[in-house]
Structure formats: structure tokens, C-alpha cells
């Protein structure tokens, strides 16, 4: 997939998440799918924190350091420690959208040489900045699909209280 297509998809994610939320009651946003996973609120908080503390830091370090060591983030642990289920959906989505816009600006401005710069991502090995963008795409795609599935369960009355 071309970087321009990846960036376009990444740019659409905040609006896609907002669209999946449209029409759902406030209580629905705290419900989880049958079988587990994050609620809508937990998902936007996760996306926000991963965007800021994961991808944002990784982009900055790959651009500014020689083959930096990039730690992984434990999303489930962050969700518990930061009590995502008690936070607000709209605030989380707004903060995610802002962090995403900042990161996309850096990716758009990157030269071919910068896109080839590398870092070592814990659990994934050596990644280029371009590969990091692909990982962002895969992460977004997975969460967008989870939210589509959760929305289907919510509208069918099959979701469970978080």
C-alpha cells in the first residue's frame, strides 16, 4: 500500500470513529462486545494515548536519533491504570484527533531519506518510519473493525456492561 493511501486512511480514522458512535446513547459508549474488548470510550482513550505516547514519540525519535530503541506500550495496562472506562468519549476523541493531525503532519513532511530511517521497536524488531506508518494503519484498521462489530452488538442489544 502506498504511503499516501496509508496517510489518507489514518486521517479518516477520527471521523470514522465519530461516525460509528453517531446515534448511540451515552450508556452504550461504556458497553463492551460479547467476548470482551474495549468499549467505545476505552477505545478512544486507547487510541489517544497510543497516538501520543506510542506513535508520536516513535516518529519523533526515529527522526531525531540514530536507530533508537522504541518501547512497546501495554494498552490493557494503561486502560486499567488510567481508568479509561471513567473518561469522556468526546474529550478522548478530540485529543486523539489532535495528536493524529500532528503525527500526520510529520509523516507528510518526511523525505524519502527520513522515511527510510530506522528504530528498533520492542516486540517487532527494526522498523523504518514508513513501516511505522503501516503499523499505525494496521492498528487503526483493527480498532475500526472492533468498533463496527461492537456497534452491531449494541444495536442488536447483545453488548455487555463494562
Task: Explain the overall architecture.
This protein is mainly alpha-helical and 162 residues long. The chain has a single domain, classed as dinb family like domain (Four Helix Bundle (Hemerythrin (Met), subunit A)), CATH 1.20.120.450. The protein has a 3-stranded mixed beta sheet.
Radius of gyration: 16 Å
Question: Count of DSSP helices?
Answer: 6
The H/E string reads HEHEHHHEEHE
How far apart are the first and last residues' alpha carbons, in Å? 36 Å
Mean pLDDT, rounded to whole units?
A: 95
| Strand count | 5
Strand order in space, largest sheet = 2-3-4
Query: Which CATH class applies here?
Result: Mainly Alpha
Structural category: mainly alpha
Main sheet, how many strands, which sense, barrel?
Answer: 3 strands, mixed
* Helical content (DSSP H or I, runs of 4+): 55-70%
CATH superfamily: dinb family like domain
Amino acid at each position: 500500500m502506498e504511503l499516501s493511501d496509508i496517510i489518507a486512511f489514518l486521517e479518516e480514522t477520527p471521523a470514522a470513529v465519530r461516525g460509528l458512535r453517531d446515534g448511540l446513547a451515552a450508556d452504550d459508549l461504556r458497553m463492551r462486545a460479547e467476548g470482551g474488548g474495549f468499549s467505545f470510550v476505552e477505545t478512544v482513550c486507547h487510541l489517544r494515548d497510543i497516538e501520543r505516547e506510542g506513535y508520536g514519540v516513535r516518529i519523533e525519535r526515529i527522526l531525531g536519533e540514530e536507530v533508537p530503541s522504541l518501547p512497546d506500550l501495554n494498552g490493557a495496562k494503561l486502560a486499567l491504570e488510567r481508568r479509561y472506562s471513567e473518561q469522556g468519549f468526546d474529550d478522548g476523541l478530540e485529543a486523539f484527533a489532535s495528536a493524529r493531525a500532528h503525527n500526520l503532519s510529520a509523516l507528510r513532511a518526511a523525505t524519502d531519506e527520513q522515511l527510510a530511517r530506522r528504530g528498533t521497536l520492542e516486540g517487532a524488531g527494526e522498523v523504518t518510519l514508513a513501516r511505522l506508518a503501516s503499523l499505525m494503519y494496521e492498528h487503526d484498521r483493527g480498532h475500526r473493525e472492533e468498533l463496527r462489530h461492537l456497534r452491531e452488538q449494541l444495536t442488536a442489544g447483545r453488548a455487555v456492561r463494562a
